[in-house]
Amino acid sequence: MSGAIDLASGLGGKIEKKEIRSAVDQYEKYHGHFGGDEEARKANYTDMVNKYYDLSTSFYEFGWGESFHFAHRWKGESLRESIKRHEHFLALQLGLKPGMKVLDVGCGIGGPLREIARFSSASVTGLNNNDYQISRGKELNHLAGVHKTCDFLKADFMKMPIADNTFDAIYAIEATCHAPDALGCYKEIFRVLKPGQHFAAYEWCMTDAFDPNNQDHQRIKAEIELGDGLPDIRTTRKCLEALKLAGFEVIWEADLASESPVPWYLPLDTSHFSLSSFRLTSVGRFITKNLVKALEFIGLAPEGSQRVSSFLEKAADGLVEGGRKEIFTPMYFFLARKPLSQS
Ligand SMILES: C[S@@+](CC[C@H](N)C(=O)[O-])C[C@H]1O[C@@H](n2cnc3c(N)ncnc32)[C@H](O)[C@@H]1O
Q1: If you placed Cys at 96, which of 120, 211, 277, 307 could pair as Cys (CB 3.0 to 4.6 Å)?
Q2: What residues does the SAM-dependent methyltransferase Erg6/SMT-type domain cover (predicted)?
């Protein structure tokens, strides 16, 4: 029950409770289902993404935990184990060592940051443009005891208030998909990374199987964009091209979804049941939906909460369909290096 109360009280993040309904209206209007278009989403990405995370963060924490991402998963591995291993994999690829200064781009409430800091003893700075998530992250860093070596910076990853050549390593987990333009974002990351050092990321992408002329594929893409606060999901090819144009040497890249023995979307698949991730199953989601309805009815959750819960449901359905058809991946991985000399 305390989880449900936390869900209700955190709903809306830093938005005034009485403004939540209109924030939901404004958020929905950015998207194709409600008459919005890609240009407006790109031009207003800060407003759209901040509204999205103010409205959805407490649902994410309730259903998913402190790390807001999917994971490559082995048979016999629990969802939680796979999420941690997916984070450790980044630390290993980046060769993180004690004392290194690392940047987490689009850090959420800092679940990966805390895990990677404890795993590697590196100092991690979480960069995020959402005030509510940063305040949650700071509380959780204190509870985890990593507040002396890890911190947060409230900033836009398209224009970071950070000096050139600052970090020993940089990673981004399922975050730079929110950028209105991948090249602009990768160039900023390139600028603040020290020469000779590495950048690794998991990107949300449409795969080569995505056909832009197929209406069904377009519908699934639009559902994911609406349900996840995205301007336009890029293809893996576009991301790779942007990375090279930004100046990076690509060491290796792969869609890890195609190598995952347990499909990454399984926890959201309504035909699947799991006790350990019960809140994500169809029964768990049905209970959450009705719980939110009841909490909104008695005034414990703000007006508009049910609509947030339903666009998140749409997102889950779009993600599962996109995953099954292999037209979408949340784990296009790359490891890239900023050359020592930029000639
Ligand atoms: C799906 S969440 C992933 C969070 C985190 N990496 C994790 O795995 O738990 C995407 C994150 O990107 C952040 N974000 C989106 N656009 C941003 C921007 N322009 N500048 C900084 N952070 C941004 C959001 O606020 C959110 O925290």
Answers
A1: 120
A2: 52-339
Give the single-character DSSP code of 233. Answer: P
pTM for the model stands at: 0.91
**Could you tell me the distance, in angstroms and rounded to a whole number, from the CA of residue 207 to the centre of ligand 1?**
22
Q: Which domain holds residue 254?
A: 1-343
State the Cα–Cα distance between residues 140 and 108, nearest whole angstrom: 12
Work out the pLDDT band at 12, boundaries 50, 70, 90.
Answer: confident
CATH of the domain at 119: 3.40.50.150
From the CB of 53, is ligand 1 less than 6 Å away?
Answer: yes
Mind listing the pLDDT tens digit for each residue in 16-68? 878 888 888 887 888 767 778 888 888 888 887 888 888 888 888 887 899 99
Give the position, in ligand 1's atom list, of the atom nearest the Cα of 45.
19
Which of 115, 127, 129, 152 to mutate for ligand 1's pocket (most ligand atoms within 8 Å of CB)? 129
**Axis crossing angle, helix 2-10 with helix 45-64, rounded to the nearest 10:** 180
Residue 111 Cα: closest atom of ligand 1: 9
Which stretches of 180-327 are assigned E, i.e. beta strand?
Answer: 193-206, 249-255
